[in-house]
């Protein structure tokens, strides 16, 4: 489809005139209009990228085939369309279109409730120190950790935090009573703050910026890097309402340098769109003794349900502009739900070899 066809299609669907200068805005409007109608779309073209990624094809009606699935209500897994209707997901044209479609889907999800807000994630992590900075130390083995949070809906009732780590082939779980669970970047937001988060993306941005300013002395990302990381943290773990979730997706769509990097598969074998905000490329050489820490945050989002499947963090330490050490972790979310089930001890991921 060429650009003139795009414009004609926008005019037909939205019944309004669109000039060339407003093509991007019209595309975004068309995306949400089509997402509401559930129009089937074309199969994306694919090509191989790094990390077994599949390159996204281009298309105007991004993610129009998404099924109406309640975000945050049950195990996190790709879910098919209702009534057994077969609908193919389409590769969106860019991150903004995909995130706007996710926002539209989130708004339509019904609100759910339960005794506990339960999130289970499996975290894989590892590190590598590169020559000439290694100095003979032994590289650490990749780690596996299961984290389960059980936030009580009634603030007067106890909440629980469960952790299970795989150490030397043995899975060591524990379940601790806690006052409450935090959310967002470095668990900054309390359950009460989550309940009061705004449903407007600009207002949500203001709340996040105020939180970062309050914690300015703490290490971590700043500016738009912080906004991206904090918003991703909220989407992955917070018991947000459908309207708050929609605002979070729209905020991500507003941020610069947010891009799609094809599709990716998490450790559970689930495939989704890879959304990331890569660190900027330095414009000048770094001094030989300058040490810098950069962090890339990526999230895998199911293309039909728009649920966050996994969040990957890549920490890169450079010295004099040369890569010295990398730290990485991927948290794969298998459950994100309101439930009346009582907290249970964490269990190892299926198929994990244990002694």
Question: Class by helix and strand content?
Answer: alpha+beta
Number of helices: 7
Strand content: 25-35%
Q: Which runs of at least 5 residues are low in confidence (pLDDT < 50)?
A: 9-18, 34-73, 78-87
Provide the helix percentage.
10-25%
How would you portray this structure in words?
The protein has 355 residues and is of the alpha+beta class. Helices cover 25% and strands 28% of the residues. It has 7 helices and 10 strands. It has helices at residues 3-14, 23-37, 95-108, 191-195, 201-214, 223-237, 242-254; strands at 74-75, 116-129, 143-152, 159-167, 170-178, 259-265, 271-276, 291-301, 308-319, 322-339. Strands 1, 2, 3, 4, 5, 6, 7, 8, 9 and 10 form a 10-stranded antiparallel β-sheet that branches. Strand 9 and strand 10 form a beta hairpin. Helix 3 (95-108) packs antiparallel against helix 7, helix 5 (201-214) crosses helix 6 and helix 6 packs antiparallel against helix 7. The radius of gyration is 21 Å and the shape is globular. The relative contact order is 0.17.
What labels would you give this structure?
355 residues; alpha+beta; ten-stranded antiparallel β-sheet; 25% helix
Provide a quick synopsis of the model.
The protein is 25% helix and 28% strand. The chain contains seven helices and ten strands.
Helices and strands in order, then pairings?
Layout lengths: L2 H12 L8 H15 L36 E2 L19 H14 L7 E14 L13 E10 L6 E9 L2 E9 L12 H5 L5 H14 L8 H15 L4 H13 L4 E7 L5 E6 L14 E11 L6 E12 L2 E18 L16
Antiparallel strand pairs: 1-10, 2-3, 2-10, 3-4, 4-5, 6-7, 7-8, 8-9, 9-10
Helix pairs in contact: 1-2, 2-3, 3-7, 5-6, 5-7, 6-7
